[in-house]
Design brief:
This protein is α/β, with parallel strands linked by helices. The chain folds into two domains: 2-49 and 362-406, Roll (Urease, subunit C, domain 1); 51-355, Alpha-Beta Barrel (TIM Barrel), CATH 3.20.20. Helices cover 34% and strands 21% of the residues. It has helices spanning 75-85, 91-107, 125-137, 159-169, 184-201, 219-229, 243-246, 249-262, 270-276, 292-297, 321-331, 337-345, 349-355, 378-384; strands at residues 2-6, 15-20, 23-28, 39-41, 46-48, 51-56, 110-118, 142-148, 173-174, 204-209, 236-240, 264-268, 302-304, 370-373, 388-393, 396-400, 406-410, 413-417. Strand 15 (388-393) and strand 16 form a beta hairpin. The chain is globular. The two termini are 39 Å apart. Bound molecules: fe (ii) ion (FE2). Fe (ii) ion binds at residues 55, 57, 116, 208, 307.
């Protein structure tokens, strides 16, 4: 396959990209087309590496309304509701919902997902189901699984042994939820324990950490400490970190450099944070999202995750990482040109680094995974939640759609409408 006349996320225009044997063989202007090769004219549209979601819950997705909806909208009612649903889950339903979501993801150009999977269940039903799904989708989507003790690795009976069993079965990453343990001390102890398990097994760590409005929830400090102590540099991620929104500025001025020093990355989940946090506030209501621009300025890898789609915590969503990035951009007020580009990176290259994806990118030698967007730049892609024209993995087309086009039929003004066209005077 040869893609002609593409715009790349770094701003280069009129670039061709040659795919051979599933890899990117050449990138540059006016490449010669080998005999018999399929040629796609991008017509100046943006060719991006695929979207990556660094934080998701595929065991709960598409279960909205089962067995009821979350009335308060809080994290804690969501956890209780999930607890009601868990005994009713079947392997078949879990697999069916997860596969349906993966179809949505592919259509949106989302080709790598890190999903937490609840291990606080004697049967490990969701673990079995998602390991099965991981194999099923392997030809077209990278699914990385995190052993997530939703009810607390210390608080929930036998959760530690369930978590270790899940890792033995092939789950990739060690998860945790220190702010949900019974005490701050137990939370800190859970972080130590889980980091040591990861170090012993040579695994990465991704913890739900401080998903609360309580500014005194400081488990991220403990996570950075153990990442440093156990030499897990670049292998540990703190998800949510919403308490940082409410922390004292002086304390944060010490905390962020400690995270940077320990090589701890961060994932904010803007759609969910803006929905779930601040629920106990009157007015003003806090936004709750962690300090994304400040973390980025310190050189920390920051990604935006989707977290939830139609589940006990969130009733909306469609696997569109541009919607996620757009919400992140607004909540963080990252409206400068550089800020918006950084938000595009937060759903592409940054999460790819956090997941440790190999061969990701548009350089020669990378796997030929990319998405062609009906827009002329990353900023325009965010503005329009750009339509996905072509989704390719390993040089194989996974999804293709016609450009969006609307004919306006207005009195005295019949015209085709193009939202990407700049207004010139
Ligand atoms: Fe989560």
């Amino acid at each position: 396959m040869l893609i002609r006349h593409a715009t790349l996320p770094d701003g280069r225009t009129d670039i061709d990209l040659l795919v051979q044997d599933g890899r990117i063989a050449a990138v540059g202007p006016q490449l010669p087309a080998p005999e018999g090769m399929e040629v796609v004219d991008a017509q100046g549209c943006l060719l991006s590496p695929p979207f990556v979601d660094a934080h998701f819950h595929m065991d709960a997705t598409l279960s909205y309304g089962l067995p009821r909806v979350n009335r308060s909208g809080t994290l804690l009612e969501g956890i209780a509701l999930w607890g009601e649903l868990k005994p009713l889950l079947t392997q078949e339903a879990l697999v069916e919902r997860a596969l349906a979501y993966c179809d949505w993801a592919v259509a949106k150009g989302l080709l790598a997902i890190r999903s937490h999977v609840d291990v606080c269940d004697e049967r490990l039903l969701a673990v079995e189901a998602l390991l099965h799904v991981k194999e099923r989708v392997k030809p077209y989507l990278d699914l990385q699984l995190v052993a997530f003790p939703q009810d607390g690795v210390l608080r929930s009976p036998n959760a530690l042994s369930h978590l270790e069993r899940a890792l033995d079965m092939g789950v990739d990453v060690v998860g945790g939820i220190p702010h949900f343990e019974r005490t701050m001390a137990d939370g800190a102890e859970s972080v130590r324990l889980l980091c040591e398990i990861a170090a012993a097994r040579g695994l990465r760590v991704d913890m739900h950490c401080d998903e609360t409005d309580d500014p005194m929830s400081r488990h991220i400090e403990t996570l950075a400490f153990h990442a440093q102590r156990l030499k897990l540099h670049g292998r540990v991620n703190g998800s949510h970190l919403t308490s940082m929104h409410s922390m004292d500025n002086y304390y944060v001025s010490k905390l962020i450099p400690l995270m940077a020093e320990a090589g701890v990355s961060a994932v904010a989940n803007p759609l969910i944070n803006i929905t779930i946090q601040g629920r106990h506030d009157t007015y003003p209501k806090r936004r709750g999202m962690t300090r994304v621009p400040e973390l980025m300025a310190a050189g920390i890898d920051v990604a935006f995750g989707h977290d939830c789609v139609m589940d006990p915590w969130y009733s909306l969503g469609s696997g569109d990482m541009l919607e996620v990035a757009s919400m992140g951009l607004h909540v963080a007020q990252m409206t400068s040109q550089d800020g918006m580009k950084a938000c595009f990176d937060a759903v592409t290259v940054n999460p790819a680094r956090i997941l440790g994806l190999e061969g990701y990118g548009l350089e020669v030698g990378c796997r030929a995974d990319f998405v062609l967007l009906q827009s002329r730049s990353p900023v325009e892609a965010l503005r329009l939640r750009a339509h996905r024209l072509l989704v390719v993995r390993g040089g194989r087309v996974l999804a293709r759609s016609q450009p969006l086009h609307t004919e306006l039929c207005l009195p005295g003004r019949s015209t085709g409408l193009d939202f990407t066209r700049p207004i010139s005077r």
